[in-house]
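Standup notes, protein team

Yesterday: finished cleaning the Clonostachys solani set.
Today: ACB domain-containing protein structure.
Blockers: none.

Input for ACB domain-containing protein:
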Amino acid sequence: MAVEQSAAFQTAVADSRKLTGKPSNDQLLELYALYKVGTGEDFAKSPEPGMFDLKASKYAHSIKLPISKGKAKRNAWKKHADEGLTPEKAQEQYVALVESLKESVGYDANKVPETVGSS
């Protein structure tokens, strides 16, 4: 389902690639989940990470066994999907989080944006 993206959301997406420091893993997961919901991607139609997605996750600090990076991202997205977060609200929260990160980890408007991986 295509969702109209606000100008503020589009700017925040671009700004997120110009952060000078690295957000925490929890913050990165939150950005990922809010982006997925904010762009209207359907969680129910997304493929689950494969059983051979064996990269140990840095995101699994609160459990005894490591989970894959893909599974950690999917779990963060699922949490918001289960809460019924609307794309519009997700976009607002994404913008607020990026603004907060600009203050806490730094931001350079002239930075060449980093390319985003597919994982």
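Follow-up from PR in the comments: The first helix runs from residue 7 to 16.
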